[in-house]
Design brief:
By secondary structure, the chain is mainly beta. Helix content is about 0%, strand content about 50%. The chain has no helices and ten strands. A six-stranded mixed beta sheet has the order 2-10-9-4-5-6, with no helix packed on it. The protein has a four-stranded antiparallel beta sheet with strand order 1-3-8-7, with no helix packed on it. It is globular.
Length: about 110
């Protein structure tokens, strides 16, 4: 059974930083492309970052490019999202996802507010 558990969210001031983590189990993590999505209130879930299985290719949504960095540790079955220069519009629930599979964690809330 695939499980994804996100952590690291919280309340941060504009301009601040957070690092999200996603612990994966029940799959051979190193074989899969992984994604970070987010969903803000009243909006659709959006893909914001993707990393390939060996971490030599990454892509980002324009809204986070240059501020967020996706990474992974295949030895630990962990996915990360370093978020810098946070803005109020980054407020959302953040989810990790196995690309092309309907596997989702419970999400972690990120709130950017002064």
């Amino acid at each position: 059974q695939v499980q994804l558990v996100e952590s690291g969210g919280g309340l941060v001031q504009p301009g601040g930083s957070l690092k999200l983590s996603c612990a994966a189990s029940g799959l051979t993590f190193s074989l899969y492309v992984m994604n970070w999505y987010r969903q803000a209130p009243g909006r659709e879930r959006e893909l914001i970052a993707q990393i390939n299985s060996v971490a030599d290719s990454r892509s980002y949504a324009d809204s986070v490019k240059g501020r967020f960095t996706i990474s992974r540790d295949n030895a630990k079955n962990m996915l990360y999202l370093q978020m810098n220069s946070l803005k109020p519009e980054d407020t959302a629930v953040y989810y990790c996802n196995v690309d092309n599979y309907n596997y989702w964690g419970q999400g972690t809330q990120v709130t950017v507010s002064s």
